[in-house]
């Protein structure tokens, strides 16, 4: 409670404007080490739970922003193909953008990884979010692995099962494509060796 009160009082204020009580408390928080008994208290557990939820929400927001970026790219390409006469004003494109971040997938991936680290790999939602990031990054095999981990922690979850089934078919296609590409490469190497001999 004390940490939350000080955090609310110190939010968006320069150090010089903080009360002496807040400065002292923040200094104590900064001086504490990870091995101190205070970090293993019930309040720290609650704070970790809250931080995990915030990280997962950040991840979801970054995924949404990435999706919006993709839609904006497609609409810009469409307007280029249609011609200059039907182009939307710049203000409308700006309004449709939720978050302007250059690497939304990287930010989402970092947030999901941090949530996994804080939960010691026990959060099904963190595994699910990271699987969604892998799916958007066009890496269905890692996405499938993460979604399987999520299902181990939340068996029977319909949302995770549905997403896993979607990703599973994409992962099988990737595996099949890699298999045939590898064999095609090997066949060309064999043909090259036969020509040389």
Describe this structure in words.
- This protein is 76% helix and 0% strand.
- The protein has 197 residues and is an all-alpha fold.
- Helix 3 runs parallel beside helix 6 and helix 6 (124-136) runs antiparallel to helix 7.
- It is elongated.
- The model is unreliable at 33-43 (pLDDT under 50).
Chain-wise SSE layout:
Blueprint lengths: L1 H9 L9 H12 L10 H41 L7 H7 L7 H15 L5 H13 L3 H14 L4 H39 L1
Helix pairs in contact: 3-5, 3-6, 5-6, 6-7, 7-8
Gist of the model:
The chain has 197 residues and is mostly helical. The chain contains eight helices and no strands.
Record keyword descriptors for this entry.
mainly alpha; elongated; 197 residues; 0% strand; 8 helices
Overall 3D geometry? elongated
Radius of gyration: 24 Å
How many DSSP E strands?
A: 0
Order of helices and strands: HHHHHHHH
User: Main β-sheet: number of strands, strand sense, barrel status?
Assistant: none
